[in-house]
Amino acid sequence: MSAATALRVEDASARPRDAGLAITLRGLSKSFEGGAPVIRGLDLHVPAGQFVAVVGRSGCGKSTLLRLILGLEEPSAGRVTVNGGAGAGKGAGSSKKIMFQEPRLLPWARVADNVAVGLGREIGRAERRIRALAVLDEVGLAEKAGNWPATLSGGQRQRVALARALVSRPALLALDEPLGALDALTRIEMQAMIERIWEDQGFTAILVTHDVSEAVAMADRILVVEEGAIALDVAVDVPRPRRRGDPALAELEGRILDRLLGRSA
Amino acid sequence: MADSAAIRSLPGRANRAEAAAPLPRKPLHVPLRLPLRLPIGRLLPWLLPSLVIVGWQAAASFGLVSTRFMPAPLDVAAAGWRLAQTGELWENLWVSFARAASGFLIGGGIGLFFGLANGLSNLSEKLTDTTLQMVRNVPHLSLIPLVILWFGIDEGAKLFLVALGVFFPIYANTLHGIRSVDPQLIEMGRVYGMNRRELFWRVVLPGALPSIFVGIRYALGIMWLTLIVAETISANSGLGYMAMQAREFMLVDVVVLAILIYAALGKLADSLTRALERTCLAWNPAYRNT
Fold first, then answer.
1. How much is the ipTM here?
2. Would you tell me the crossing angle of helices B252-280 and B73-86 to the nearest 10 degrees?
3. Contacts of B207 in chain A (CB under 8 A)
4. Which of A23, A68, A143, B120 has its CA 20 to 30 A from that of A220?
5. Cβ separation of A150 and B206 shorter than 8 Å?
6. Does the domain spanning B74-288 belong to CATH 1.10.3720.10?
7. Domain ranges of chain B
8. Where does the pLDDT of residue B38 fall: very low under 50, low under 70, confident under 90, or very high at 90 and above?
């Protein structure tokens, strides 16, 4: 641990990719209250700083997988290991953050205060405010800092939720279908914004989605989950920035969709 | 941002509606105060009460109603002035106000306590909720004979009745408010590392507040009602007592004065709660412009 911290001091700014957490799952299983297992003996390694998309049909266990990785659920069997790359883990508590499908902002707190929820208790008031405003600026909402959430549009609220997740500079960002409720254009803007911030900050990102084109556009690697196990694990080798409608992406999207639809037909 | 700018450059819906003015005048849900200048909008609610008073005065002056049973507004005002001069009015007003406020604080405090406790703890709810719901079905004013036996016509009797009446609306609405806090927000708070105390102060209590305010407004109504009844039946001071004394001597103007003062106090309490709601619930679009 101390060696890792020492290393970080030297190259923290030079190699942002090291700011992520690596995830290793070994024989992971999860079942709820005697029901059929939702996750069945899953093995996975995600290197630090990778952008992984998890796709699958509703009820395939992808959200449970995400909650297991975050430690929100206890595995029934197997092990989840989440450990720091060289630059990870400033304050273990704040290093994993999740963004939900809904913004889940506190309606009675102003935008800046909602963002500050993402910071720990130990940070002082003035410092919280400065950091909240900085990250709001990054998602393009600096001028809304003093607004109530009720006055924002759906896309803006989800950007505030993104700012709240990012304000503590997490080493792992879990995205649980965060763009599902947005209109198509806002969604594309948000995808670009998340991708840009991920490239800047170098955290590990796990995106759960059922939109295959979103997965293909954003991720380094796509996992297709079927019946609680990984059915397909493909790397997306298309260089960034990616252009929508790129034939390589379209071909990959087609392959994954075939897999998802073919199984059930 | 870019798209909102584009939308703004389109011809606005409002403009088009004005251009097509001869057709339907205005959608029903547009608040009336928009087309009115602000002072008129402010005064409009008082138009009807003023007309009633003017009509009443006219009816009394022209002898359409007997002033033996229904005094003219000016006579009521004169009675108010007379009692204010002797200090009798202020004394009774103060006594009634003190009873109402202390009964409200005691009953409301206990209601808030049990509402919070039962909303937050399953054990506490299992232990007390059924009992409280049973007591709730007893009309509290039916206890007056018993209360007089217990407390005489002392202060205790009035406090007890007001506190009892105020307790239930605050208890029930606090409990309901806490129960209906969005569980997704609570999960968010947990995931983002809030401890139990933070979760209560930052998520649960603010979420329950609109419902608690509903309880407070109900409770204020019950508070005045209970106090009036209690003071008319058993008291030797206070507004209700003043009205009963006046009836003995056929001072109808004082009786009407007491009734009007009760109405004014009720309105005052309601306005204070509304002002409090506006500051505490400014985040909620439903309360911003009421």
1. 0.83
2. 80
3. 108
4. A68
5. no
6. yes
7. 74-288
8. low
